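Why should sequence recovery work at all? Because a backbone constrains its sequence more than one might expect. Tight turns favour small or flexible residues, buried strands favour hydrophobic ones, and helices have their own preferences. The token representation captures these environments compactly. In the example below, the structure is given first.
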């Protein structure tokens, strides 16, 4: 029974991470300019901003989080059409501890709003709905929290910086 539950959780986490990555990619492509007015962002600042927000968010929710990916440099488009670099950071956690996923969503939503992030909740239409909240703006391009009873995922994408992705990856 426990092994079957673990397999179901792993499948759900993989599915939710895949959805989060697709959503992240589509939001990134849709928002060519992360830096209004052509302001520049240093790669180190972009990386720090997303790591800080994701880790502050996971701390607010609590529990034991593990690294799924990042902070990884990826190509993004600068306001002038040139290439820059943003960072993707994903943490995951098994199951909901303590309060319900709805309470954890409220905690994350409140934190993000305090940082100037515009939030939007989501819920699938199934009998056992998949729930969460997505955010845009403020110190990041996008951030998402998938809060399923079987597992949580926190995904963030930093603002586009002036960095060269190949160079940044070599430094990692």
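From this structural description, the recovered sequence reads:
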């Amino acid at each position: 029974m426990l092994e079957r539950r673990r397999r179901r959780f792993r499948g759900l986490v993989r599915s939710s991470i895949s959805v989060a990555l697709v959503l992240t990619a589509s939001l990134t492509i849709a928002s060519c300019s992360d830096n209004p007015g052509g302001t520049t962002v240093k790669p180190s600042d972009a990386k720090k901003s997303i790591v800080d927000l994701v880790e502050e968010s996971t701390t607010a929710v609590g529990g034991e989080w593990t690294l799924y990916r990042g902070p990884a440099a990826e190509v993004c488009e600068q306001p002038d059409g040139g290439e820059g670099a943003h960072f993707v950071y994903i943490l995951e956690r098994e199951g909901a501890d303590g309060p319900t996923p709805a309470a954890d969503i409220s905690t994350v939503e409140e934190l993000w709003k305090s940082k100037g992030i515009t939030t939007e909740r989501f819920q699938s239409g199934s009998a056992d709905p998949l729930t969460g909240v997505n955010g845009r703006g403020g110190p990041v391009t996008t951030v998402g929290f998938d809060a399923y009873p079987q597992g949580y995922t926190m995904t963030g994408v930093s603002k586009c910086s002036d960095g060269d992705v190949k160079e940044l990856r070599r430094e990692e």
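A few observations help interpret the result. Residues 18-37 have pLDDT under 50 and may be disordered.
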